[in-house]
Amino acid sequence: MRRPALTLAVFVLVLAGCGGDDQPGRTVTVAPGGALRVVAKEYSFDPAGIVVKGPGVLRLTLSNEGSLAHDLKLMRDGRVVGGTAPFPAGESRSARIPLERGDYEFVCTVGDHEELGMKGELRVD
User: Fold this and answer.
1) Is-contact 64 40, C-beta < 8 A?
2) Are 29 and 54 in contact (CB under 8 A)?
3) What pTM did the predictor assign?
4) What share of the chain is helix, strand, coil (3-state, %, to 5)?
5) What pLDDT does residue 25 have?
6) At CB < 8 A and 24+ separation, what contacts does 82-89 make?
7) What Rg, from alpha-carbon coordinates, does the chain have?
8) Cα 79 to Cα 93: distance, rounded to the nearest angstrom
9) Which domains does the chain have, with CATH numbers?
10) Phi, psi (degrees; rounded to nearest 5) at 49
11) Are strands 49-52 and 27-30 parallel, antiparallel or unpaired?
12) Average pLDDT value over all residues in the chain
């Protein structure tokens, strides 16, 4: 009787490890004054965590690989400090965003995308 349970447990673990290259929730580190590509899909950003190793201008490119329009707005203390306008699927937009030390949040402001999980965190060390 224990053998089917063990087989099922192993199968579930193997299946959980199969996910291709999607790594939702991963964090990347960027040099001060560096460039970063963020991918937008329904309803997530990749990467969802960004650490910038010092203040400076971040060169951000948002690639919309979803099927809906998306944008990226970088927020600090409830205020927009930079980002892109909404744009359709299959396109990319770039922005240059000056950053100071501290914590930021980035969100998609299209419809209810933020509430559906389209958000992330950025920290400048």
Assistant:
1) yes
2) no
3) 0.80
4) 15, 45, 40
5) 75
6) 84/60, 86/110, 88/64, 89/64, 89/65
7) 18
8) 21
9) 23-124 (2.60.40.420)
10) -130, 135
11) parallel
12) 87
